[in-house]
Recover the amino acids of this structure.
């Protein structure tokens, strides 16, 4: 049974969200979700990188299969992701300097975001065709951005001064993440792609 690309797109945003259903990309999710502005910038950058690298890794994987080198996919996927982020960083520094300085350290952090590698690996495991891969990469990026922007909005409203010392910082963030994941489970009756 072939899943329609739009179903994959919406499922990867809501019911199969990389943060809330797979808990991938948590390190940057926790550390960068303190302010809405920086979370939005990182969310847009991750969405762009995730979409493009998933497409690139689709073609690279087809090339690896052709040459019977499928066992190299982990290493090659990481190299493609790191190279693309480096090229993007150089492009932004050269042509869109304001955005480059606004994103700052967050651009290199995208390279080590395990959600980006995870999407490429899920694409292979689920045997998506090209159109499904494009919508899966884009939807996963939008879902990740939605999660981090929502978390930043909630964290900006939480007054950590009234919290007990043991709940400040990462602990309250993980509790909020769990509650948000439970809320996203409510969408699971709609569609799920696992």
């Amino acid at each position: 049974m072939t899943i329609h690309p739009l179903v994959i797109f919406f499922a990867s945003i809501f019911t199969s969200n990389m943060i809330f259903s797979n808990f991938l990309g948590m390190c940057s999710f926790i550390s960068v979700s303190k302010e809405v502005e920086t979370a939005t910038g990182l969310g847009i950058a991750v969405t762009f990188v995730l979409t493009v690298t998933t497409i690139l890794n689709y073609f690279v994987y087809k090339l690896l299969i052709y040459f019977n080198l499928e066992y190299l996919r982990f290493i090659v996927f990481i190299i493609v992701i790191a190279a693309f982020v480096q090229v993007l960083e150089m492009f932004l520094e050269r042509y869109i300097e304001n955005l480059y300085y606004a994103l700052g350290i967050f651009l290199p952090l995208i390279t080590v975001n395990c959600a980006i590698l995870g999407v490429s690996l899920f694409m292979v495991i689920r045997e998506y065709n090209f159109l499904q891969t494009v919508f899966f990469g884009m939807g996963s990026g939008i879902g990740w951005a939605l999660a981090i922007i929502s978390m930043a909005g909630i964290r900006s409203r939480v007054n950590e001064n009234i919290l007990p010392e043991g709940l400040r910082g990462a602990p309250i963030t993980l509790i909020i993440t769990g509650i948000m994941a439970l809320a996203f489970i409510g969408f699971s009756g709609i569609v799920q792609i696992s």
Q: What stands out?
A: Residues 36-66 form the longest helix (31 residues). The CA atoms of residues 42 and 177 lie 18 Å apart. The chain has a mean pLDDT of 89. The radius of gyration is 17 Å.
